[in-house]
Amino acid sequence: MIGVADIEAAQARIASTIHRTRTEHSESLSTTAGVPVHLKLEHQQRTGSFKIRGATNAILNLSDDQRAKGVVGVSTGNHGRGLAFAARQNDVRCIVAMSQLVPQNKIDGIRAQGAEVRIIGQSQDDAQIEVDRLVAEDGMTMIPPFDHPDIIAGQGTLGLELIEDVPDLSTVLVQLSGGGLVSGVAAALKARSPDIRVIGVSMERGAAMYACQKAGKPIMVPELSTLADSLGGGIGLDNAYTFQMTRDLVDDIVLVSEVEIAAAIRHAYWHEHQIIEGSGSVGIAALLAGKVRPDGETALLLSGGNIDMALHHRIVSGEDVDVTAGENNA
User: Fold this and answer.
1) For 174-229, what is each residue's pLDDT tens digit?
2) Which of 30, 114, 193, 281 has the most neighbouring CB atoms within 10 Å?
3) What distances in angstroms separate CA 212 from CA 16, 129, 142, one per listed residue?
4) Residue whose C-alpha is closest to residue 262's, from 325, 316, 202
């Protein structure tokens, strides 16, 4: 497993590239929860999400030969943007494979960072086939979105920042998809204070890690349309790190509905003055819906802000957005 020493090394390695995002007290959510609630404003990170942390750490750890041949990865959007940014900063060729479920604004964001985008199939598993081909035929290095030591350590730097900002932290709500973020954050937090409660939050539609943990092993889980599109995709049947780390370090997993995600996006806008995407809102959603009842200092990660602004306008204006009808995507 990745430990706090790996995360501390990553923190030093990426410090000159990333922003150290603020942690702010939320009066409205503190009133709702009955305990102090703090928001980690990671959606204000460079590239609009936490993903740049792990991607930068991985790029900086490449050998000269790997840099020369370039990197490739599969993404639902935010990892690809972070990887493309880190690759461009270090003059490394980058290709990102994505499924047709990825929103156009996220595809455009990756291309704007200088990476080549290839749209393959209807799921991350389909896109992974193209990644595997590029590794085998062109010798490129695959940097996956979550199940990689450098990625996990990079994301874990968020945990180090949180415990610095809120020393008496009791509960942390963390987005849960493939598990790279929650594994790294939990490893960092529990190394500092083992009693901190880490809760993973995912969406009801296609929550792969939740299903895998219930099954006791990595399994295939259908990828479905959701407002929390960045949390989509499977964890990989050959998962080497994040399944075990999630099992061992995460205290609970809760799921939120599409209606609850939309309500959280509205809350973030009208009460916190923050524009966040669906995946970034799931911690707020769980708290507002009463699915988590913290008993001490609590922190939520606002993990990403790369939402299509036309969709955001519809949601915050009160419209019910039916993602199952193909009208979304965040």
Assistant:
1) 999 999 999 999 999 999 999 999 999 999 999 999 999 999 999 999 989 999 99
2) 281
3) 36, 21, 23
4) 316
Handedness of CA 222, 173, 158, 88 (dihedral sign): positive
d(CA 277, CA 330): 6
Cα–Cα distance, 37 to 32 (Å, whole number): 9
Q: For 267-279, what is each residue's pLDDT tens digit?
A: 999 999 999 999 9
Structure tokens at 46: 């460079």
Burial track 110-146 (b if 16+ CB lie within 10 A, e otherwise): beebebebeebbebbbbbbebbeebeeeeebbebbbb
**Which two three-digit tokens encode residue 211?**
């299903």
What burial letters (b/e) apply to 270-304, b meaning 16+ CB within 10 Å?
eebebbbbbbbbbbbbbbbbebbebeebbbbbbbb
